[in-house]
Amino acid sequence: VPKDISRGTHLNEGNIYIGKATPPAVVKLFQEQFRKVYDLFLMLRYRELVCGGHMVLTFFGQKSEDILMHGDVASMWGLLAEALQTIVRKGRMKHENLTSFNIPFYAPSLGEVKALINETGLFDIEHIGLFEHGSDPQDDDSSSDTVFDCARSGENVAKCIRAVIGPLIIDHFSDAVLNELFMEYASIVSKHLVKGKAKFPVIVVSLKKAPISDQICNLRLENKIKLEQNS
């Protein structure tokens, strides 16, 4: 999560991720934070690999270059925000806690990933692509976009998201609302799936360690750490 948001500045009120009402300044903060973290990640992986070593990465992405063209990944976080708002209205948690909660997540586009990797000069891209994966981890049927049991799929999605985000919910709110929250979330997701299957774009990239000096990488890493410490 960008520092300006995580410090309690309510720049993204009403959202826990990048939503339709998210100000452009907040979108930029998420993008800049992603670049910082991903750049550091690549530097650290570069140091671990032998010369000519390969690395394959898979992570959620964005089909459109325009981050505000919301895909199903953003929609699922939006539905979780709805569930949280319902719990607030019931008086089960404070509104102030919700406004200060943001998902530490960013789904980049293929263009963003390519540009960042090329800018670092640490790796050569051997392959990069994007495929879509259904939101229900129990649904292996890719031949149809129709959800035949929305209630069950909603529960499956909720269990999956809970496994990922549950510890953050407990840390920021409390474990007292966890079961109620994800029951509400499952119900909201079930209604959303009536429209059809939700599909998450997944980026796959195969990288090869570029032939640059390890000393150059170490120097860049040291400078980056110093900048982070002074910011």
TrEMBL record:
Pfam families: Methyltransf_7. Keywords: Magnesium, Metal-binding. This is Uncharacterized protein. Gene3D superfamilies: Methyltransferase, alpha-helical capping domain, Vaccinia Virus protein VP39. One of its GO terms (molecular function) is metal ion binding. Belongs to the methyltransferase superfamily. Type-7 methyltransferase family. SABATH subfamily. The keyword Metal-binding applies. The keyword DNA damage does not apply. Coiled coil: none annotated.
